[in-house]
Inverse folding.
């Protein structure tokens, strides 16, 4: 039976998603306008939205996002 290699994450999910969104936006800024750039920007928005949703779900009062 194979064992899974597990490790503890140093940063929170929100921080990792925000960093990924920033990295993707920097990558997109190097590309010319087109489909590839649009796809990278879409992934960056998804990462930002995921980060915001995770923060909202962890909040004590579950206030709707701004």
């Amino acid at each position: 039976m194979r064992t899974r290699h597990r490790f503890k994450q140093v940063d929170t999910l929100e921080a990792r998603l925000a960093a990924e969104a920033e990295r993707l936006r920097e990558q997109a800024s190097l590309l010319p306008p087109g489909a590839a750039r649009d796809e990278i920007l879409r992934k960056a928005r998804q990462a930002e939205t995921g980060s915001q949703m995770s923060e909202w779900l962890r909040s004590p009062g579950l206030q709707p996002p701004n």
User: Anything to note?
Assistant: Residues 35-58 form the longest helix (24 residues).
